[in-house]
Amino acid sequence: MPHAISPDPVAEDGILPDAPALGGSSNSSQDASQEDSPQSAPANAEKLNLENMFDDDDEDDTEFPSSSIAPPDSDQPTKSSRINDPEIMKAFYQRLFPFRHLFQWLNHSPSPTNDFANREFAFTLQNDAYLRYQSFPTADLLRKQCVSLNPSRFEIGPVYSTNPRDRKTLRKASAFRPLSKELVFDIDMTDYDEIRTCCSGANICNRCWTFITMAIKVVDEALKEDFGFKHVLWVYSGRRGAHAWVCDKRARDMDDAKRRAVAGYLELLKGGDKSGKKVNVRRPLHPHLERSLAILKEHFQDDILSSQDPWADSEASSNLLKLLPFPDLVSALRKKWDSAPGRSSESKWGDIDTIAKTGVGSSDTYFGKRLLEAKQDIVLEYTYPRLDAEVSKKLNHLLKSPFCVHPGTGRVCVPIDTRRVEEFDPLSVPTVTELLAEIDAWNGDEKREADEEAKKMQDWEKTRLKPYVDYFRGFVAALLKEEKNGKRDRDEEGDPMEF
Amino acid sequence: MIRQEALRGDPKRRLGLNHKKKQFEQPQFKQQDYTHRLNFYILPPTLDITLEEFEEWAISRLKVLAELEACAFRNRTPEETASYMQPILAKHLPLAQNSSRSSNLQDERKRDHYSHFILRLAFAATEDLRRRFSRLETQLFKLRFQSDDARERREFVDHLNFEWDKVGEEEKRGLAEELAAVTPFKSKNAGSEEEGWFKVDWEQVPELVEGRKVFLKRGKAYVPVREQTTLVVNEFQRRLDQGLVLTSRALPRLDEDDRLSPILAHLSKSFTAPDAAYSQDSSLSGNDISAANVDALSTHFPACMSHLHSTLRANSHLKHFGRLQYTLFLKGIGLSLPECIAFWRKSFRLITDEKFTKEYLYNIRHAYGDVGGDANRRGRGYTPYSCQKLLTEGMPGPGQTHGCPYRTFSPDNLVGLLQKMGVNDRDLLKTVREDVGRQRYHIACNRVFESAHKNELKKVKDEGTWNAADLDTILHPNTYFKRSFLLKNMGKVQSGDVGMEDPSQ
Ligand SMILES: [Zn+2]
Prior knowledge:
The complex is a heterodimer of chains A (about 500) and B (about 500).
Chain A: H1 50-56, H2 58-63, H3 65-69, H4 79-83, H5 86-96, H6 99-107, H7 114-117, E1 119-124, E2 130-134, H8 139-149, E3 153-160, E4 178-180, E5 183-188, H9 206-226, E6 232-236, E7 241-246, H10 249-252, H11 256-266, H12 287-306, H13 314-322, H14 327-338, H15 345-357, H16 365-383, H17 389-393, E8 399-400, E9 415-416, H18 432-444, H19 452-456, H20 466-493
Antiparallel strand pairs in A: 1-2, 1-3, 3-4, 3-8, 5-7, 6-7, 6-9
Helix pairs in contact in A: 5-8, 5-18, 6-8, 6-20, 9-12, 12-16, 13-14, 14-15
Chain B: H1 4-8, E1 14-16, E2 48-50, H2 51-73, H3 78-92, H4 105-123, H5 127-147, H6 150-160, E3 165-166, H7 169-174, H8 176-181, E4 197-201, H9 206-210, E5 215-217, E6 220-224, H10 228-254, H11 260-269, H12 294-297, H13 303-315, H14 320-333, H15 337-347, H16 353-359, H17 361-367, H18 374-378, H19 387-392, H20 405-408, H21 411-420, H22 426-437, H23 441-452, H24 454-463, H25 477-488
Antiparallel strand pairs in B: 1-2, 3-4, 4-6, 5-6
Bound molecules: zinc ion.
């Protein structure tokens, strides 16, 4: 693995003028030791459970199919190769990435704390080396590292009990342990492949993006109404999914058992590809499911039945029949559909009630109730969020940082405003090349030459990134305000953890 | 932790279990009076006991915990566990109700109390042991709590003085619908009208939350009185976990006592986890276990691995948990690291060498202990998964293939899988359906094994060439493989290797 880059060049060019002064013990800069060089980086992962390591690669399993299978001479659009241009990424970190807001988000306070300093960052470099256990005392040092290493993306891990860079010098391995991290969720379109008909693989369109929209609505509501969390940040993953970061202190402090509990509470679809019916819930429905069903029903008619048309052909409609009770009803439906090939899913869905009413089976209330429940289960199977629950269950799981650039699409991983989640269009999210062009266009406009105000503007303010950074800023401000109040309360009460 | 002066001054070498003052509140050098049958084990024992008692009481309790663990292992339901444990508890760790008016009450409770604290010492050293001990002790407590006389149980709970928020009548009426929805219709007087509810932070009852057994509102969980057990049991475990951490910090001082250390070491050794005790013996060294041979060997695989193998062949890919489970199994049958790498490289035929090296190679090497930290290398990587592990892990999500198919497949799909594996006996398939319907997954798997090796098993039994241990219930996929391989290759297998040690024992 060739790498000409020094792992930590910060030491050489000193500290930014606006960075807070550092004591002699600053350890961000003395880390050029061999142990953190990219080749040996994975060996540092012993703290990680092996299962986590197996987790990490799955998004990539199908993420870049074209780059690994496509014949070398194929004349693919060169978009992704342009994004891989190191100069573009470097300019992105220099001019556009909102490091200061990212810092405040993770630091929970305006002045540097261990929440930021002991936080693990992991970089994926342009040569695909993976550099774990990086940490930074300040936003500026993180920024400098990004500019100099120029990673294709970076991930955020937990806050540790000590500085991650010092972990090797500790006498007892147990002194280095993860303390806190946002509760995170990962929703990826791959998990919908068996039910979406419009696209496959890495592709998405606005029709299948609705699956993600529905998932965000249901999960966001449950996190806030049921668990009482207030600070939930949703982020577009850059291609075909979304991440959630629950940032409340109460969420960050959760151990694995509690994370598992939240994931289990939200998880509904059980079983792999071979397990048959995936929704098996008792009645009455749990209030969370009742509310979710009410949200999802709104989407079912348009976004599933007419837009996805999931049971158009006869093979697909036999999947539907498998989910229905009462053999008589099923065979009557099969007969009807066999004689009308090409009947739409919408009509087929309607047929279920029509046929049921015309006397197949009895008209007693038990029959009606069972049928209604089966139909509810089907609605849930086709709309309820499919979470990659493993990501949420582990305190020490790393997740790609907001505002990174997806290396496959060039799109920035921007926050999604849940108040306008329906309007979010992943295909219009700006790419890094577009953003850089927008800065140039703005600067090239002669009228602005003399404008004093304009000179003070940050580069991101001149681009379509602005609304996303503004939203993020607002989110972080609300979080910081609560942290400040919370901290005051805790100080007044005395430390409840001391006994 | 041991009172040296008591020992020195006592010719009978009596032993005091006086925990240090700093650590626990006030030591009481008098017989504790056990008012309640149940014990939260807040106060450590203070009276002297003999070395013999020390060891004997600890071993009795250990037997009970081992049997409890075996119940989970064999997938017994709570009811089955309770009835299975009853005679074992009566024999090794009897604990009568006050109402029994037994004259042994105080002695029984003392033994219970002391043996608990002795095992704390034995199992506080590592996090793994602590976690396991805490899990089993909590199960034991729960078992006893549930079987306790209702009145005595209430008195016990009352004396603990929990501060749980009662839900007022007005709020209860306002939430009637939601509360009814988390009340199983079966329980008669559980209508939210009559039933009492506690309101606690949801973090206090994570397992009720995980199973959606409580109503949640803005961070509070509404726990019905009938689920009080969960609250009490969680509180028991929370305090035990805290206590164990304190004990572990105090342990180094105990090392100086050379009479206790061997006993404690022996106790903790006889409590090694089934997974950790995996040995190389499940492999078939000397036979041709190579990448090229896996297809042929796969006829000896249990359903879980057979499914992974055929999925891999069909898709040229496996998702991460499947990959991990299968890699460890292959390691267990004796596939060397280079052969295992060759196997995966060939199997993932749709990806480039570069991608393979980048994304998969390291994980395979890590599973073998070829890379990773000292602990991983020393332990030769990860242990192949036992049936217990596969049966207690999370269910696979869409697209995933790991786990035990007897548990994760719908009955129809399971039958399809078994038929693909060559199991066609209709009666057998019917019985397997019944087994999995009653969640007896490993029994179903053993049944399939016995049927597939009927003739060979008869032969070794008739000839007396295998002893009973070699024919014990299979509890590990690698045992399944090895036993199958040996039975089908009788006479051909390299000698010196027929010692059938169950990797899970
Ligand atoms: Zn689409």
